[in-house]
Amino acid sequence: LAPAHIRAISPYQPGKPISELAREMGLAEESIVKLASNENPLGVGEKARAAMQASLADIARYPDGNGFELKDALCRRYGVAMNQIVLGNGSNDILEMVAGAFLGPDRDAIYAQHAFAVYPLATQAAGARGIEVPAKNFGHDLDAMLAAITPATRVIFIANPNNPTGTFVPGAALEAFLARVPADVLVVLDEAYTEYLAPADRYDAIAWVARFPNLLVSRTFSKAYGLAGLRVGYGIGNPAVIDLLNRVRQPFNVCIPGLAAAAAALFDDEFLQRSFELNAAGMKQLCDGFQRLGLKWIPSYGNFVTFKVGDGAGVNQRLLRQGVIVRPIGGYGMPEWLRVSIGLESENARFLEVLPAALG
Ligand code: PMP
Asked: Which of 38, 61, 296, 343 could bridge across to 308 with cysteines, CB 3.0–4.6 Å?
């Protein structure tokens, strides 16, 4: 039998796949709207698609285990060195590498209440102790997180923007926080949604790595770059941190199509801009809809928004019967809320159309 700390884990609950709902409800797949996993409703950009398709000629071979081309592209894009980058099978993989390399029994990790579910999961899987710090206005309370540090703390996870609440900590506050974190505590700044920040909110965490050797910035190609199904993420940090992560990384953890598509997507500014604009317009569409219905929501900086319905599980079930998949977040301690991802205009409209009846 597995040890107690593994048996204590409650598994990650992904959004329901379209095919599964179609079967369950006897609905046509085309009629289903999935706004449950913070995916990019535009799909895959043309440059990424072309690169991915060209790469398929090589898939009888193993991928480049060092991901040279993608790392080279990241170096050019962000002005960092090769040895400052680790690639992941999605950024989830980066989080797990952190837990594998820096956590273990007798060590603890700090994360916020209502923060991304993988932080407690990865911490528990490593046999470490998780310290959940109460949220402030649904977001990270950085002072409380600092106060929670113990001699056994080795990792602090921060999602900015946070999922599922969409909250955001301004760059200046993060910088001040980093200056106060002890040098032997790694801060994982999870920026899965950073590309959705409005220009006025943007900050450059990668530039901070030179000053804070205990900072690891984690990002993904799953969201704004539209490549969730290919599973590509990356971490940027101090070479010593990256070296440790590479020791626990699987040898060929990113697949050939993923490496190729990500390298192309990184320079597709036009696609990124379209994704950003569609998201901003969709966010307004949904929030205007919540306002009309008298529903409360948490202002979000990501590509999703969390809104209050009372009976989250019940409303979710009624939405599912109408072929609309959103995300219940009872597992995040928010059973009265649901999270909806920003979709295409027509998908957002469909969701808003069926929502009043689903509210009961
Ligand atoms: N961090 C946060 C905050 C997320 O919301 C997600 C996706 N749900 C991830 C990391 C992981 O995404 P991926 O593994 O697809 O990069």
From this structure: 296
